[in-house]
Specification:
28% of the residues lie in helices and 29% in strands. It has one domain: Alpha-Beta Plaits. The protein starts with a strand and ends with a strand. The protein is α+β, with helices and mostly antiparallel strands and 82 residues long.
Length: 82
């Protein structure tokens, strides 16, 4: 099981809107810098505990916030969530 779930977004604006939506839904969303292994560009991602994955996806979809990609993070290893 992953330690954390990371959501990436097409824009910083979408990430900030996503954070607002997730926090309003009572989820434990946290902003963090984009891991260098994902991109050398400046950016942010949102992280959630693994047990909030489905609720987080549903919340963002309901708020019409585009998710670019979802990653599972275990230690320093990142894998794409299919």
């Amino acid at each position: 099981m992953p330690d954390e779930i990371l959501f990436t977004f097409p824009t910083t604006r979408a990430a900030i809107a996503g954070e607002r939506a997730l926090l309003a839904a009572g989820l434990a969303a946290k902003v963090m810098p984009m891991p260098e292994t994902l991109s050398a560009e400046c950016g942010i991602v949102l992280r959630l505990p693994p047990d909030e994955l489905e609720t987080g996806k549903h919340t963002l979809q309901t708020a019409n916030i585009s998710i670019q990609q979802i990653y599972f993070k275990q230690g320093e290893k990142l894998t794409i969530h299919a």
